[in-house]
Amino acid sequence: MNLSITNLSKTYSNGVQALDNISLEIPTGLFGLLGPNGAGKSTLMRTIATLQEPDQGSIYLGDIDVINEKHELRKTLGYLPQEFGVYPKSSAQDLLNHLAILKGVINSKERKAMVESLLHRVNLYEFRKNRVNDFSGGMKQRFGIAQALIGNPNLIIVDEPTAGLDPGERNRFYNLLSEISENVIVILSTHIVQDVSQLCANMAIINRGKLLYAGRPTTAMDALTGRVWEKLIDKSELTMIENEHHIISSRLVSGNPLIHIIHDENPGNGFKQVPADLEDVFFTKVMGLETAA
Ligand code: ADP
Known about the structure:
- Helix content is 32%, strand content 28%.
- The protein is an alpha/beta fold.
- It folds into two domains: 3-217, P-loop containing nucleotide triphosphate hydrolases (Rossmann fold), CATH 3.40.50; 222-287.
- Strands 6-7-8-3-9-10 form a six-stranded mixed sheet, sandwiched between helices. Strands 2-1-4-5 form a four-stranded antiparallel sheet. Strands 12-13-11-14 form a four-stranded antiparallel sheet, with helices on both faces.
- Strand 1 (3-11) and strand 2 form a beta hairpin.
- Helix 3 crosses helix 4 (108-121) and helix 5 runs parallel beside helix 6.
- The longest helix is centred in the middle third of the chain and has 14 residues, at 108-121.
- The chain is globular, with a radius of gyration of 21 Å.
- Bound molecules: adenosine-5'-diphosphate.
- Adenosine-5'-diphosphate binds next to helix 1.
């Protein structure tokens, strides 16, 4: 089953066009929606999750017309929003049980078994009697996945889930996401390139409401082969190089900027050709440097 998005547009009443004619085909598995802050990711996620209306366009999950059959979609949707809000002072077990009732799992025996299995699945069983409010960031996100999995959804949406997690928690969360994405569509919206490069077989990049790329991360990286050059420079050289080249990225290594530039031929001057990584792809697309020399 695919999620098919066609010509989706949305302009808010303040005039901001958050989605500009987006068309996307999202297959089963983990799909990364990558974009800087303000790109339109949450608008797209909330629209797919039936929480807001687009101005135009259509979304289908298999046969379900998402915009006109909201109830049908909601039966098979698991959603982990960016802000889960304040958790009541309930234990993980009680809260999951309550959310399962809200999702229509009325048989209490079935519900008990489901809650236990979900707690095991996200590795929170031993903390089931603890308050979710007191959980660490990573545990809260794993709890968020447990609640999103209630009712075996075919579509799971997670909006910026790794922001604020430490590296260990982030890895545990990555493992969980890859496990659950085997037979369902999981859309992971993020501004963190590493989330997508480590996890997603398919991806899209959006910025200012526009789709800049859709496809495999590897295909996008291959397309930049031979054009990315790297050099560790002195801070004092930065302005000069900025004037001469299109800098894709700059990060400090032991206090000195390690820069990547895009250039069709060898720029000389100590630059070394490197394989393109997803960060090069991301910044090249977002800064519109594709056609730069
Ligand atoms: P992202 O999730 O990628 O950070 P958003 O979808 O939240 O992006 O926002 C896209 C753009 O739409 C931003 O410029 C944001 O300020 C604007 N925006 C988002 N929600 C609203 C709203 N309810 N009213 C007006 N503008 C909004």
